[in-house]
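To whoever is on call:

I kicked off a structure prediction for a single chain this morning and the downstream step that reads the tokens threw a length-mismatch warning. I double-checked the sequence; it's 514 residues and nothing unusual in it as far as I can see. Pasting both halves so you can look.
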Amino acid sequence: MRNDVDIEHETTSGWRRRVTSTLLVLPVLAVSIDSSVLLLALPRLSTALGASGTEQLWIVDIYVFMLSGFLIPMGGIGDQIGQRKVLFIGAGIFSASSIMAAYADNVAILIAARALMGIGGSAVMSLSMAIASTIFTDYKDRATAIAIRASTMMVGGVVGPAVGGVILKWFWWGSVFLVSVPPMLLLLAFGPRLLPGSRSRNTNRTDWTSVAALLCAVLLIVYGVKATTRGEISPTSIGVTAAGAVIGVFFWRRQGRIPNPLLDPRIFRSRVLTLTLTVMVIGTFVLGGIVLFVPTYLQTVRGASPLEAGLWLIPQSIATIAATLAVSRLSRRLPLSYLLASGLSVAAAGCLAIVFLAYVQQVPFVVVGSFLVSVGMVPVASQGANHVMFLFPRSSAGIASSVVGTNNQMGSALGVAVLGSAVNAVYRVDLKLPDSLGKAPGDTARQAINEAAAIAARLQGTIGQELLAAARSAFLTGLRIAGLVSVILLTICLVITFVFLRERFPAKAKIDKS
């Protein structure tokens, strides 16, 4: 299985492997932080640049669109022309576009810069894991490396708002983009000497029709999901999503017909592979929803500032790092199914804590709940990713890591869209407005709890307090439903794990194409 790629520095010393691993992890942290660090800077940059509501959405969303859409194409191109080369190109694009975004003087330039950041970030996300798999060829050693990388992504998403809050306290809005530049520059400075190179013996040309079809499919589907998240369900959003699905079917059918597919359908005949990806996408679905709700609860229901909300979640980041180290050690002794089942059980307990929060309304329950969900997802994300990487041929390491990344991005986006829509739907039905509140403010308050809180802050007397109390109660009812749905989904994953994923290590022969 491993004879289809030449690897330089295969016997790299232990200290050098640790240094190169760090060199690969730091840029991943930067890309992950950049997904959420902008949220706190958005009001300030919108005022400075005069961005409209629609333009603000594009400033935030275009990064996610490009990052999700280019993951698999970047992985495939890296497998064809060199993973390290494409990684460095991506890091260079990300650094230059981050500086461009930091000093943008109009909305068009900022949106363009964010799009380029997403493209560069997709190369970093997909190929950093692929190169890590060439450094750590042993299943157990690679489990540790991928666990650290997976937790880095989770930590980056959690600490992003806190990092943004601290930076904005002292600097201008554009400074939030510059925090990602130093890790990329370190990669570009030391990567050529420290990172192992790879030369694929696969001489087939990249099928650019497949690249374009997959890119269009992912972009259209992600756009539809994001529109649903904002409650913009319309013929246009439905049509865009349907068009993405049709193009996706065309892409998949083409992969089975051409001699050099971008993504070989035969690999997915492995039941272990497809079910592992299923468990991972459900896990990120739940995690994406919880990450959405917790900051909203802390800020809108409990009245915490953005910085205070971010600080509340710092223990979660520390626990995620600790869980990563523990899981990497346990993976040397325990079967994959035990690790996945343990993580899913811990995450389910966290969802139950959030359900209980809806009754007691205490901050520790939401903090503990999100804490348990994040810790529980560590073995699911890290060991699941390692399992998938091991099942792919080594010449397809770029594609393998891209499949993992796209799977996680889609799961998270769907979690935000579906669970977010469910909470908002329950909120609108359950909200009992004060009788004296007018129709116009009442209609606005029904849109979301944030809108209700803004209206309540402008109202005089007890009517504002009544509106805020009703909005908080309705939001907690929706949160309880989302928590219960998450528990059910995680229970289904537990069943899949115990019934179908009981192999201790993956069987390479099942999908070896060499």
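Update from on-call: the warning came from a stale cache, not from the record. Cleared it. Sanity check on the structure: The CA atoms of residues 50 and 221 lie 29 Å apart.
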